[in-house]
Amino acid sequence: MRGEEAKAACPDIQLVQVPVARGKADLNTYRTAGSEVVSILAQSGKCERASIDEVYLDLTDAAESMLADAPPESLESIDEEALKSHILGINREDGDDFKESVRDWICRKDADRRDKLLGCGIIIVAELRKQVLKETEFSCSAGVAHNKMLAKLASGMNKPAQQTVVPYAAVQELLTSLPIKKMKQLGGKLGTSLQTDLGIVTVGDLLQFSETKLQEHYGINTGTWLWNIARGISGEEVQGRLLPKSHGSGKTFPGPRALRSLSNVQHWLNQLSEELYERLSSDLEQNKRIASTLTLHATAFRSKDSDSHKKFPSKSCPLRYGVTKVQEDAFNLFQAALREYMGPFGTKPQGNKKETWRITGLSVSASKIVDIPSGTSSIMRYFQSQSTIPSCSTSGCLQEHVAVTPSASESCSEQKSAETEAAMPPDKDMSITDTSPDLDNSYGNMDMVPEKFTCQDVSCQSNEATEFPTQSGSNKGTQTKTSGQKIKEKSRGMHSVVDIFKNYSAAPRSKQETQEDSTVSLTSNRGSLSSSTSHSSEMNKEVGDRRETEWGYKVGEIDQSVFDELPYEIQREFRSFLRPNKRPNAGKSKGDGSASSGIAHYFPPLKR
DNA sequence: ACGGGTGTGACT
DNA sequence: TAGTCACAC
């Protein structure tokens, strides 16, 4: 029920509300909580942060070790928490005997090796959940099974704060009567289609269809995937990734709250950009990562006019570090999208006051996040100073600045940012374009779901951007160059600092599990966010380790002009990373063999 | 059940 | 690469 109803029914009820900052919901409390739990779980095996409160753990190694060194059957006593497990296929009626049956199952000597591993997993997971509870005060639920799909399914079967196990022999029974809509990925349109188009309601029904038949209806990949999951087969690997791949900040403006003026849109974009930037700064500071693409999403409708439900296009551009830069670029992206949305007829000559459009949703997000190799302290400082530089707001400066912004500005030459006020402080900029994939590290993962948050203290969020003042402050200006043209060209050519980073090859993480992983998915509930903070150092450590791997780059990918734009200090630092042996034979970019001009194939001279 | 704020991945 | 769509928490 809604809060109001609840209050009416229970006047003394304690309702917890999501914190608000900058006029919008602030989820940092939850992000921090999630990170705390991940940092604990990641110690035990490969970990994948599946969402803000969910993780998957691949405990294969830990389980195998236990089986080899101290198998359950050799233990004199089994963890009480483990004995509380729900094991599918084992009846646990009356309260006294079931722990015995669980113990028997875990210690069964004649068990299939896979189930013996599961038995170890049960003990490990029980231990982990206790540790999470003790160290964070969050409880969590878990599923222990042979793959992600089954573990996820199981984790939701006994909540809160319990764990469920799927023995190999229980898979069929579990699945046959299970409504397909309960399976991850089938909760939406595909599940509906399966139901209405093929009459499939349960996974058991799905079992009747041949792989070919399913492929005819849903394509090769989806068809095969469906055929497999009906049999409890899921080859999905647990990704070793503890950090999010993107950051976003958005807000909806339902019904009467829809935005109707450019200046209002700009106001909210500024708020959203500010939050986004704060998070980017934390990421840089804590994880040494840089995002390189900024994307603007909006939802809109045009009152009255025909096809008022046309989609508002999303737009993106290179992400430049600096709050005002993000705000500026976001607004420019919006205007570019708006013109496209309104069509050739969107031009101004519309006498009456209010616009014909209504914005019901806005969001800005940052993606293509790459690690900065360890040891690049000057690069860190560079980006930090970038964000520190306040404003030098002069229209002339703005112009130049604009010319430099590739995508976001390409459109901004014309329109009026009139009413918008606020000096747009164009600072020196450095556009970042593109990046490369995730260099995952391998750790375990887990996810928790705070059920009741009693955290009323918004300040428990740990990142105060003291290191990355979001604005104002003295200007260190002169050490970075303000030129525009060169950077613009390099941006066009898609080369920049991040391009260099991206080639830093994630050291082959080896580690190739195959089948029969003990995968765990935990879901937690409840928790009183105590002010526990500094666990951040632990996180840093984890993240730091993987960065020590060597990295290489292709000389051919560094544009001379890009290099020239870098502060001397950074040019020097980069030089230390350059690996002559990686020099390509022919001009190529991104290793895809495509030729590219304007690329230097030699070490750029240091410039001061 | 529904809505808000996020986030990921497939596909074009 | 940019942009859309589906799905999930």
From TrEMBL:
InterPro entries: DNA/RNA_pol_sf, DNA_pol_Y-fam_lit_finger_sf, DNA_pol_Y-fam_little_finger, DNA_polymerase_eta, Rev_trsase/Diguanyl_cyclase, UmuC. Residues 521-537, 586-598 have a biased composition (Low complexity). The keyword NAD does not apply. GO terms for cellular component: nucleus; replication fork; site of double-strand break. Keywords: DNA damage, DNA repair, Metal-binding, Nucleus, Transferase. Residues 408-448, 464-547, 575-608 are annotated as: Disordered. It is found in: Nucleus. It comes from the Eukaryota. It holds the Pfam family IMS_C. Residues 1-187 form the UmuC domain. One of its GO terms (biological process) is error-prone translesion synthesis. GO terms for molecular function: damaged DNA binding; DNA-directed DNA polymerase activity; metal ion binding. Residues 538-547 have a biased composition (Basic and acidic residues). Gene3D superfamilies: 3.30.70.270, 5' to 3' exonuclease, C-terminal subdomain, DNA polymerase, Y-family, little finger domain. Residues 432-444, 464-485 have a biased composition (Polar residues). Coiled coil: none annotated. PANTHER family: DNA POLYMERASE ETA. This is DNA polymerase eta. It comes from Raphanus sativus (Radish). The lineage of its organism: Eukaryota, Viridiplantae, Streptophyta, Embryophyta, Tracheophyta.
